[in-house]
Amino acid sequence: SKAIIVDGYPLPHIEELFSELKGATMFSVIDLASAYHQVPLHEDSRDLAAFITHCHVPYGLASAPAAFQKMMATIFSGLPGIQNYLDDIIVYGRTAAEHNKHLRAVLLRLQHAGLQLNTEKCKFNQKSLRFLGHTISSKGLLPDNDHVTTILDAPAPTFAPALRSFLGLTGWFAKLIPNYATEVEPMQALLKGNVNFEWTSIAQESFNKVKKLIVKTPVLAILDPDLPIIVSTDASDYGV
Q1: Example GO molecular function term (predicted)?
Q2: What is the pTM of this model?
Q3: For 170-208, what is each residue's pLDDT tens digit?
Q4: Which of 134, 162, 181 delimits the end of a domain?
Q5: Distance CA 183, CA 193 (A)
Q6: Residue 132, burial from CB neighbour count under 10 angstroms (0-12, 13-18, 19+)
Q7: Alpha-carbon distance 86 to 63, whole Å?
Q8: I need a labelling partner for 85 at 20 to 30 A (CA). Which of 1, 32, 71, 121 fits?
Q9: Do residues 196 and 36 lie in contact, with contact meaning Cβ atoms separated by under 8 Å?
Q10: What phi-psi label fits residue 101: left (phi over 0), alpha (psi between -120 and 50 degrees) or beta?
């Protein structure tokens, strides 16, 4: 992978993806079966992929995510009511009829592209569903229950990599937790510079509080730019 010239095609920004769901009341998620393995690898590249010659794109190839996202963008070009992050696809509509129209168009494009679905993971015509670690409905976003359980079950970190892992999990939902950066600062401080890792009572308090906040997270409404927007800002004693 280090020798590969990576396609610069960008992956979607999660927040921008979610913002496109504003006003939707009906959703479907589509999962592709072994997504990369459905994409033929160019014959000139097959001998370079590994000691075992792959005929389709293998997982772990540095250029695969960008190339796959670019392919999916081409497949769905011009279609309304669809967003995807790699092989995670969500179809939505303001009404059931609009949703179904969008869904038929998406399925036809996938069929035309010769891509197969993992039907066990697909969910159709749902008022609420799980997508990219969140539970999505017409009301907005909540952390997915499985992710919340993982956070609640996490033991107190005893070394830096474990703390980074925990903060990575909670950071995924930072937008849902008021004053998240301030709340996790006692833990973040243990990862700065050449500080020796020592789990303190202050860090433990921060750890416990973040767990409580993730459980009490309110539904985050999806921003509708057509409505009046009120911006509230504050200052912090902690530098970025």
Answers
A1: RNA-DNA hybrid ribonuclease activity
A2: 0.81
A3: 999 999 998 899 999 999 999 988 878 999 999 999 999
A4: 134
A5: 20
A6: middle
A7: 13
A8: 1
A9: no
A10: alpha
